[in-house]
Design a protein that fits this description.
By secondary structure, this protein is of the alpha/beta class. The chain has four domains: about 120 residues, NusB-like (N-utilizing Substance Protein B Homolog, Chain A), CATH 1.10.940; about 60 residues, no CATH class; about 55 residues, Alpha-Beta Plaits, CATH 3.30.70; about 190 residues, Vaccinia Virus protein VP39 (Rossmann fold), CATH 3.40.50. Helices cover about 45% and strands about 15% of the residues. A seven-stranded mixed beta sheet has the order 10-9-8-11-12-14-13, sandwiched between helices. Strand 11, helix 17 and strand 12 form a beta-alpha-beta unit.
């Protein structure tokens, strides 16, 4: 039996093949498949949205599917289950696809993937979903066992309970209704002092992150860039931070003349604030560890007015991304160095050092959907060990009177304040002067969207 089509395939098939890759970087896989199959910008966007959405909502979709099966305990072939989840996601969570078209297209995908003997089941389940959930209800989703949260201001109401009782099993409810792992559900309920605030964070993790860009201040500013977007008929709005811009058509923006001219760089507002806290000045010497793809590297260079030196470290296969971004943005002060050559740099020789370390990604689950299913309490031990090592290593390059920025895209205190306190305690010449945890916000308003993240500032 054929499991996957062998010829060029459509956006839905690209999404299906992509999110079935449960080992690697799913979104990168989808992007590669989209290129190989020569998808248009719109179809590439659809494939990315479908793959990300099914990954994010997998636990919720499985709970919705179960009561619609004649034998709820039956184990479907994994490919059949994945095809049904693809259809359910389109029907319940994707406004851009008419529901009946979603059913028909999903049935076609089942045929393309050699699942003809299951088409009756797939078609029946999806048409049941059309009857059970004809339209979402407007308003914030109540925390109830028969409520399916669609977004921060809309939900579906099931005829029967499909989730755990939130009053009796709040963590089980949160894990299922908001599709996050149990370890994270239990942690967030404890950390945020209750189910309701934890659900707000989980809702953001299931959101569609907008494309946030920063103007390249070497070439333009916020007002001028907004005007250029308007001239190009690309919908865009100013971000609430007064610096960034929200672009509503990612594909059009990334293929625009403005992008190739280097007038802007995608960067979330939370990452932007970390670079601003670094406060590098023209003529300074800056070290950016773990620098690829160069988003913070180039921002630091722009703040420095392209005067001075920025040394960007990462593994060799990623350094080309940094060089490419610098070339596009017109930045000439960045020097890329393989991470293995860190020891060749002089200690205590940089005015500013950035340690943007690998982390659990719990603040950016909306952008990195598969990261949620990798989260386990036991994984933090190894991460924290690496984060402490990297932060202290970075600290050794800060000159007297200089500054270290330690940052993550995590919400977890052990990775954030815990590591900062360790560095403050262990470093002989640096002191923690301030720290900032940004909780994810803006699920209901793209102009206020911020990824979750943390940064600490140390000074010598």
């Amino acid at each position: 039996m054929v499991d996957e089509p062998q010829e060029k395939i459509c956006a839905r098939a690209v999404a299906l093949k992509g999110f079935r890759d449960r080992e690697g970087n799913v979104m990168a896989h989808v992007d590669r498949l989209a290129g190989e199959n020569e998808l248009s910008s719109a179809d590439r966007g659809l494939a990315m949205e479908l793959a990300a959405g099914v990954i994010k909502r997998r636990a919720t979709l499985m709970a919705i599917l179960k009561p619609m099966l004649k034998r709820p305990k039956q184990r479907l072939p994994l490919i059949v289950s994945d095809i049904i989840l693809l259809g359910l996601y389109q029907i319940l969570f994707l406004d851009r696809v008419p529901a009946h078209a979603a059913v028909n297209e999903t049935v076609n995908i089942a045929h393309d993937f050699g699942q003809d003997r299951h088409i009756g089941l797939i078609n029946g389940v999806l048409r049941s979903a059309l009857r059970f959930y004809p339209a979402p209800i407007e308003g914030p989703p109540p925390l109830e066992a028969n409520i399916i949260p669609k977004g921060p201001n809309s939900y579906y109401k099931a005829a029967k309970d499909i989730f755990f009782d939130p009053s009796a099993d709040p963590a089980e409810y949160l894990a299922c209704a908001y599709s996050i792992p149990m370890d994270l559900a239990e942690r967030w309920i404890g950390e945020y002092k209750g189910l309701e605030p934890a659900a707000e964070i989980a809702m953001h993790a299931n959101g569609r992150p907008p494309m946030t860009v920063r103007p390249n201040t070497l070439k333009t500013d916020t007002a001028a860039l907004l005007a250029r977007f308007a001239e190009a008929d690309i919908s865009a709005d100013p971000h609430a931070n007064g610096l960034s811009i929200i672009v509503h058509d990612r594909g059009a923006a990334l293929t625009s003349k403005m992008f190739y001219e280097g007038l802007f760089q995608p960067q979330d507002a939370t990452a932007t604030s970390a670079c601003i806290s670094a406060a590098p000045k023209p003529g300074m010497r800056v070290l950016d560890t773990c620098a690829a793809p160069g988003t913070k590297t180039t921002h630091l260079a722009e703040i420095m007015q392209n005067k001075g030196e920025v040394v960007a470290l990462d593994i060799p296969q990623k350094l080309g991304l940094i060089t490419s971004n610098c070339r596009r943005l017109g930045i000439s002060i960045v020097k890329t160095v393989p991470a293995s050559q860190l020891g060749s740099l002089d200690p205590y020789s940089f005015d500013v050092v950035i340690a943007d370390v690998p982390c659990s990604n719990t603040g950016v689950l909306a952008r990195r959907p598969e990261a949620r299913w990798r989260f386990e309490e036991k994984m933090l031990t190894g991460l924290i060990k690496d984060q402490r090592f990297l932060a202290l290593a970075a600290a050794s390059f800060v000159k007297p009177g200089g500054r270290l920025i330690y940052s993550t895209c995590s919400l977890e205190d052990e990775e954030n304040g815990g590591v900062a306190a360790y560095v403050d305690r262990k470093s002989e010449h640096l002191s923690l002067v301030r720290e900032k945890l940004t909780r994810p916000t803006g699920a209901a308003d793209p102009t206020k969207w911020r990824d979750g993240g943390y940064h600490a500032v140390f000074e010598s």
